[in-house]
């Protein structure tokens, strides 16, 4: 095997797992140069972003520093944002890195590759709804989760003094919206224990707005119905079959002209590829801003470029695209890992086949619900409560195992549990 430069852009659920595995297999031994590029220096598994937003987890404790992790796992980390791609010269451009004052820290750079993997994830889709970009927080990255957290802290401070109501509106009752709503209720229940003596859950009003005819529209009816019962029970106000026409400072204006008053506004509906992809004019980009790939995850028309995860559009044999989920990103990373090893040895690559193992939704301390897919006639099994919570947590365990290996991941999880036991349950700063 000759030395090869494999550059992976995006260190999320798919990209970081791939960089870690390739790094350990080829990077540590010097058989290939593995380089991971990300615009952020810290990785938090995206399905945990809503927990960062409400303060249930602390990024300074649970965040993984790419630079340090890369050193131990055989890849080189480069901080930067993808700005361009030149397939002819096999190079990408990273835009300059700025400091907090907006001054240039590192200038624009060109990075050469032999193989390039795009894994820059997706962002929420506002469907060009007027006012959405201006007034809503999109829970797409660590930065926006931290911004939400700061606004929540400001509101808690005000609430404690004024005793008014805190009204939060969330557009999109998919997993993100539902999990965030439940987690917010849990936090408001708990803040008294942290010195916010005048606040309790009666001060919180959460509006969850969904255009489809049920919450969790992508999941089986039984899962949606059970989640709805739990949300009803804790007092989340559900607006089902309601479309948002416009977002204004005071809240959401519906198609019928009704204003759903909300101070803090979150947009968690739809997924599309990041804007950076629209600038890659040499590559085939879909209407949803994703890179079109073939069955082996190769970008169509490109021999040396692959794309995985939410930023890739891979149409399955069924005619449906692979869904934007962490389990899909991690399965793609696993298949591409094997394919790249094969390719470097001159062997054939295998097509990616998505295995839907079901979906699990955490309803904070109140419950967890989901469905597990069986092989038998594609029927799914409904689960809830403790079993569903254990299965939900096992997804994160699998992600950790891909980053650290199973043994180290188990030690890491144990250490985090001990830390959690000793540290405050909420981050309120
Ligand atoms: C709150 C929330 C809850 C979710 N819950 C679940 C769940 O329970 N189960 C499930 O299966 N899925 C869930 N998802 C979806 C899941 O998180 C994504 O499908 C998954 O993370 C996609 O993985 P990825 O590797 O494609 O991208 P990501 O994990 O999003 O990673 C993308 C990476 O690329 C980096 N990046 C972005 N743009 C650039 C650029 N221009 N240059 C350089 N780097 C860049 C980002 O910093 C990030 O590190 C949830 C999503 C959210 C937001």
Automatic annotation (TrEMBL):
Organism: Shewanella electrica
Protein name in the entry: NAD(P)/FAD-dependent oxidoreductase
InterPro entries in the record: FAD/NAD-bd_sf (IPR036188), FAD/NAD-binding_dom (IPR023753), NADH-Q_oxidoreductase (IPR051169)
SUPFAM superfamilies from the UniProt entry: FAD/NAD(P)-binding domain (SSF51905)
Family named by the database record: Belongs to the NADH dehydrogenase family.
Pfam families xref list: Pyr_redox_2
Cofactor: FAD
Superkingdom of the organism of origin: Bacteria
UniProt domain FAD/NAD(P)-binding: residue ranges: 5-333
Keyword vocabulary terms for this entry: FAD, Flavoprotein, Oxidoreductase
PANTHER family: 64 KDA MITOCHONDRIAL NADH DEHYDROGENASE (EUROFUNG) (PTHR42913:SF3), APOPTOSIS-INDUCING FACTOR 1 (PTHR42913)
């Amino acid at each position: 095997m000759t030395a090869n430069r494999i550059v992976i852009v995006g260190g999320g659920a798919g990209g970081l797992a791939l960089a870690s595995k390739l790094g350990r297999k080829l990077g540590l031994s010097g058989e290939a140069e593995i380089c991971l590029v990300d615009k952020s220096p810290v990785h938090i598994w995206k399905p945990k972003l809503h927990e960062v937003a409400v303060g249930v987890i602390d990024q300074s404790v649970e965040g993984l520093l790419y630079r340090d992790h890369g050193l131990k796992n055989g890849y080189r980390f480069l901080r930067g944002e993808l700005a361009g791609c030149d397939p002819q010269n096999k190079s990408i451009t990273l835009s300059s890195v700025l400091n907090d004052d907006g001054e240039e820290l590192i200038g624009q750079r060109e990075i050469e590759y032999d193989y390039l993997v795009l894994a820059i994830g997706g962002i929420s889709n506002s469907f060009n709804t007027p006012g959405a970009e201006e007034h809503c927080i999109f829970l797409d990255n660590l930065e926006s989760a931290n911004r939400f957290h700061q606004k929540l802290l400001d509101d808690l401070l005000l609430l404690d003094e004024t005793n008014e109501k805190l009204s939060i509106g969330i557009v999109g009752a998919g997993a993100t919206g539902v999990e965030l709503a439940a987690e917010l209720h849990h936090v408001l229940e708990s803040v008294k224990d942290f010195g916010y003596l005048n606040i309790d859950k009666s001060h919180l009003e959460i509006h969850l707005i969904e255009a489809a005819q049920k919450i969790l529209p992508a999941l089986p009816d039984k899962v949606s119905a059970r989640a709805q019962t739990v949300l009803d029970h804790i007092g989340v106000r559900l607006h089902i079959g309601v479309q948002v026409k416009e977002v204004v400072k005071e809240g959401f204006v519906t198609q019928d002209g009704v204003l759903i008053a909300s101070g803090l506004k979150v947009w968690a509906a739809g997924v599309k590829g990041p804007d950076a992809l629209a600038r890659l004019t040499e590559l085939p980009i879909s209407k949803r801003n994703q890179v079109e790939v073939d069955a082996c995850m190769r970008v169509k028309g490109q021999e040396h470029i692959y794309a995985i995860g939410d930023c890739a559009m891979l149409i399955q044999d069924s005619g449906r695209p692979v869904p934007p989920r962490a389990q899909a990103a991690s399965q793609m990373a696993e298949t591409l890992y094997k394919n790249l090893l094969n390719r470097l040895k001159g062997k054939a690559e295998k097509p990616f086949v998505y295995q839907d193992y079901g979906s699990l939704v955490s309803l904070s301390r109140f419950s967890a619900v989901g469905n597990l897919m069986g092989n038998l006639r594609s029927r799914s099994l409904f689960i809830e409560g403790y079993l569903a919570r254990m299965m939900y947590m096992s997804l994160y365990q699998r992600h950790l195992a891909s980053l650290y290996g199973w043994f180290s991941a188990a030690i890491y999880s144990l250490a985090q549990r001990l830390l959690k036991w000793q540290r405050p349950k909420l981050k309120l700063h």
